[in-house]
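Repro:
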Amino acid sequence: MIFRNNKKALCIGIFRTVLMLFVTGCVAGSALAQETHVSPWAPTTLGPLPPIASLSKGVWLKGELHVHSRHSKESSNNSISKIINFSKSVGVDFVAITDHDNHVNGDVAHNTWADPEFKSDSVLLLYAAEWTTTRGHGNAFSATPYDHQRLYDVRDQRDVVVGAVKKQLGIHLSANHPSGKDHFGYSYDMVNSIEVWNSAVWPKNANAIMIWDDMLSSGRKLTGRGGSDAHHGAPDSPDKATKNTYQRNANYVGTPTTWVFATARTTQAVIDALTNGRVCVTSNPYTPRVEFYADLDQDGKMDMMMGDNVKSTGKPVKFRVQLTGKSIVPDGTYTISIIKDGNPYSTIQMSGKTPVVEFTDTPVPNERTYYRVTVEGPPTAYPQVPQSAGLSGNMLGLSNPIYFNFDPNF
């Protein structure tokens, strides 16, 4: 009897001990599960952001940021003077002649820039070249001459070396046709802009737009720009025509056109506006310009434009999209597609002599948000490049983003 009672007591004791260990383990496991991981790279509260530049003290300039002259070996009938004279005739304000640097072993300074025709009394000429490497192509832009040979010499080095040289040179580096055959195979951390619209053929740029949105969504504030990438001009006589001469009527200077809102009509102001993202792109020089603004306090006065970056307040923001230009079709319908953080947000239609639409949204406080727009509508004729409108189709233009809570030191 005593043995049975002891055995019973022993069993009860063991059961209680096991139960206690089980409960203790569950509590400990629960406590461990409740611990939260804090990433050292998680976004933090931003400090003061640079003030927004004036929306009125500036000038809209339109230009070509990717065109080749006779100093690119595969080019034909396209002298520098021909490019400049054509640009002047269609109202283009600035041009970057971007000849392939590998065709002259990096010595752009004694070729394109030293050409006696490299001068103009009206068209702003950027110092530029297409950085042509086995890992892809990029355009270098500068308001003044720089030592391009140094950039060419490090074309096969690691990105950290290339980035250091680029910084020392003080140039604006842009990724060319990022999804094409000669895609940009370097880090996007060392570029200031990306060619989101290459040539008059708009449909082929879909993957470039996807890459752009990927970079923007991850916090990189990269300007989207265009460039015709034209290589061939019109022959002076029929006997000088080549197998590529036909391209001249389909893709040439201004297909597409990159617009910048510059503080002055100078090469440095063009570079600054391009870097800051106060930029839109249109199918050609005559296409209505796309302007994108935001009214932060909804007082009816626009406070910022594309390229600008502010902290969100948690309050609704009113956005405005407007088209400006003489070629607006009064009875035409223009479709505005709004992209928010890389995803379709809304589609709005507008019409009239001065098409304007507005929409309201509330950017989330302390989280990165960006908005950009594309515009489709009646194609704008470009008589000097007659086949280009058909290649661009209904795609008329796109804006750069308006940013909220983007870290300028990212």
